[in-house]
Fold each of these.
Amino acid sequence: MQRFENKVAFVTGAAHGIGRATVLRLAAEGAAVAAADIDTDGTAAVIAEVAAAGGTAVGISCDITDTASVDAAVAATVKQYGRLDVLANVAGHNLALDGEWARQYDFTFVGATRCIDAALPHLIESRGSAVLVGSISGEVALGTAPYAAAKAALANLVRNLAADHGPKGVRFNVVAPATVATDRFIGKEALLDELKAIYPLGRVGQAEDVAAAIAFLASADASWITGITLPVEGGLTTGPGHLLNLL
Ligand SMILES: NC(=O)c1ccc[n+]([C@@H]2O[C@H](COP(=O)([O-])OP(=O)(O)OC[C@H]3O[C@@H](n4cnc5c(N)ncnc54)[C@H](O)[C@@H]3O)[C@@H](O)[C@H]2O)c1
């Protein structure tokens, strides 16, 4: 499937995990991809993978906590490829600093708005689409309130932006993953194994599961979908029914 032929995508958090999988997925579907991350060795490895698979990607240094860095990265993308059709803001993690509300909010929520501000004029020009990575922690209480609340704010952000910019042809959506086996779980394989039991689908997520959802929402297949938060969570929030069946 070549849903992104002649399209250009800007992906943050591109060096590892869900961001890396998103770069590979969008490039495999024909996009020219700007792989943006603070880890430039990591993005170099990802763009080498894309090139080896016959795709097109460039690595760009970008820190989503720094407005000038984000502006420069988006400008470099448009200079390189001439347009921008897809913003995928994936960068982020739980800083796990209880009480550090402002720092987590700046990283998770304001970071996303920096990317949107920089990309928006180009997305209006291309009638493009933005997908933000939230978390199922933003939908239900799973601990670490600063992270969860900052992720929750993304759902309202995309509703408002979808209403404001839908008439200009730009769509905004969130994907909200539950446990995804990325680098953050290195050394915690036993925990991942235990967590399988709380998922009706019997497994934790893989980065590719989330990348597929991001690609769907960014593509023309989702051309009448905007302002939503799509849970990508193996059935976690269906309730405890599958656990009760074990009794
Ligand atoms: N893995 C999970 O279980 C899970 C669950 C729910 C939501 N999420 C969300 O998915 C997204 C990706 O998570 P992951 O597990 O793939 O993470 P990861 O740690 O594997 O990768 C995160 C990437 O972001 C980059 N990054 C960190 N700070 C940055 C900054 N300031 N600017 C630019 N890039 C930066 C890192 O270098 C890294 O390449 C995050 O927004 C996270 O909150 C992950």
Note: The longest helix spans residues 101-126.
Amino acid sequence: MLLEMKAISKSFPGVRALSDVDLALDRGEVLGIVGENGAGKSTLMKVLAGGIRADAGQMKLDGEAFAPRRPRDALDAGIVVIHQELSLVPDRSIAENLYLGNLPAKFGVIDRRALDRYAATLLAKVGLKVSPRRLVRRLGIAQQQLVEIARALSREAKLIVMDEPTATLTTAEQRTLFATVAELKAAGVGIIFISHHLEEVFEICDRVTVMRDGHVVETRPTGKWSEPDLIRAMVNRPIESMFPPRNVKIGETLLEISHLTSAGRFADMSFQVRAGEVVGIGGLIGAGRTEVLKAIYGALPSSGEIRIAGRPVHTATPRQAISAGIALVPEDRKGEGLIMPFSVGRNVALSILSRISALGIFLRFRRMEAVAMNAVGAMRIRTPGVDVAVSHLSGGNQQKVVLGRALSTEPRVFLLDEPTRGIDVGAKVEIYRLIGDLAGRGGAVLVVSSDMVELLGLCDRILVMRTGRLAGSLDRSEFNQERVMELAALT
Ligand SMILES: Nc1ncnc2c1ncn2[C@@H]1O[C@H](COP(=O)(O)OP(=O)(O)OP(=O)(O)O)[C@@H](O)[C@H]1O
Ligand SMILES: [Mg+2]
């Protein structure tokens, strides 16, 4: 055995995050771990990586007792974790990030060009086509994720943990990553793969462990799990169909975009979204999808025209966009979505704060709490209370807070960037239902998603972007995975 974890337990104030967890991993094996948001997956990996000390339990690595006191100890032992929350230094270049904490002592005298060349080979391995000199700050979230993976590859690891590595990747990058996993496996590296995309888990894992409420429910060889079994073990309650049919009357054009252009990012985007309609935007990473949403929201400079219900609106700033009835759920929840030290309640209430502050402090507090409680209930946010700091929630639950906040503003135009990134199957159903309700009440919904199943299942129409332009628009009656990919990839 490469790794054995025995009877690991860990509590945080108000939560038993891990109880008596056993886990084993062989060399050259890929072990999947699945479970709902807050089940304890990341906490278990942090114990393994020396980021958190367990309250109880033992570990063995290569048959010897292993008790890392800090992340450095785990790294030195050959354990590399690609964390769910990205940990790159934004103001350094890609190449520098690749070597950070990993540099040969005499960095000063090292040939920069040689470093760049080596960095370029690593980037090629993960399919990222940008210069190693580029600052990480200038990369999209999915590109940053690829840099994290490249950095893990640069270290001589015997065990690699990937905590939701594919959450933001599109099909093409996902293929590249899986080829890399196969290579590592062949070289005898043990891999722990955490994902909410069950089809991926079925594809690359040898065994799958299900966690729930801090316990291991069961581990089986992948072939012995069926998807319904796996979901049942994860959520412990019946799940309705993923995409309930919507019987919505599609109304008049609500959002109308004409010749929207943001220099160097995308150009000449013209399209409409009608009341009651859910329109998806597909395309490869870097096609400009996120930028279009940001421009509509006033978070990026742009030219062109935006009309809502026929009236031109001016959205030079997000504040103007919000008062025009536009809400955005951003892709980067850590950077733009949440204020980490603030409580769940304050984060949920954040964007309605200005609207309700006129009612006075007391009312504001009561209202905030009510809104927060509502969101926590409706979205099954797993938290000991609304007054807990958002930084203490699991990754998926943080994402739900961002969504809950946007929903609480009751917008007419709803812009969603990767709304279910990192969200478990059970909660996805809730979110799809909420999106359907928004459209059902006459809202216009525009969704950027790299999850093909989601795009096809959720949307009435799919716009496909390719290198900053609209490559095509497909109606529900004519779209399928191949057509979307075709439009996205043609050059
Ligand atoms: N630093 C912390 N302080 C307090 N509670 C924490 C802390 N870290 C995690 N928790 C809690 O421990 C539980 C398990 O969280 P964990 O991050 O391990 O979940 P997860 O299975 O990785 O979920 P996800 O799928 O959302 O990433 C959650 O209830 C979470 O709120
Ligand atoms: Mg996690």
Note: The CA atoms of residues 198 and 227 lie 7 Å apart.
Amino acid sequence: MPLYEFKCASCGRDFSEIRKAGDYNSVACPECGSTETQKRVSMFSGGKATDCTPSGGG
Ligand SMILES: [Zn+2]
């Protein structure tokens, strides 16, 4: 599941939540509990340096 970034419009706290794809409508703020949160735009460009070498055998 993707990790979405939100920003609370009530207290201004920014946080991240792991939601299902497209399910980021009613996200409550972990600080004040307000649902006046806005999804922030996150960069999905490749930038992680993950070494995932498919080494067969073993
Ligand atoms: Zn808040």
Note: The radius of gyration is 16 Å.
Amino acid sequence: MTLVREFRETDVEDWRRLWDGYNDFYETAVPDEVTEYTLRRLLDPKSALIGRIAEKDGRVAGFSISVLHDSTWTLSQTCYLEDLFVDPTLRGAGVGRALIQDLIDLGRMRGWSQLYWLTRANNERARRLYDSFVEADAFVRYRLTL
Ligand SMILES: CC(C)(COP(=O)(O)OP(=O)(O)OC[C@H]1O[C@@H](n2cnc3c(N)ncnc32)[C@H](O)[C@@H]1OP(=O)(O)O)[C@@H](O)C(=O)NCCC(=O)NCCS
């Protein structure tokens, strides 16, 4: 049984463990001060960051972090799903699917215009999941570090 809910103060320890796993997956190390700032925003209801936690059989199993923003193309806000991660020991059991479906349901309820996300072209496992929701579009990302 998978349940997806808002991020809470009591999730901090579990989230840090999952966040470390997410960093390992991307072979990166987000600086501690950035992680702490992210955490503060996840706990701030006024922040544009939206943290969601998936629980499987009462255990924290994964998370999504999204950013809600304005758009010049729509009247209502659009949601960028920035981070998605499932505990490696709990994969393949529908937790990732539940985390995306949760954002779709939340967005419909709150009147967002769109939900979008990016992934590496070769992230086959994630793409199999994503393709079951919607077809990827033809946009390519350009990113300049400032
Ligand atoms: C991508 C990820 C979030 C998927 O989470 P998950 O809980 O394993 O996904 P689900 O169990 O909901 O699986 C959904 C689909 O993924 C695919 N899938 C599941 N297990 C799989 C496996 N062992 N091998 C290949 N594909 C698999 C299937 O298409 C499945 O569809 P189904 O629901 O019809 O069976 C998870 O693998 C993950 O955290 N990966 C590392 C981080 C990452 O890639 N994040 C996304 C960055 S954009």
Note: The chain is about 35% helix and 25% strand.
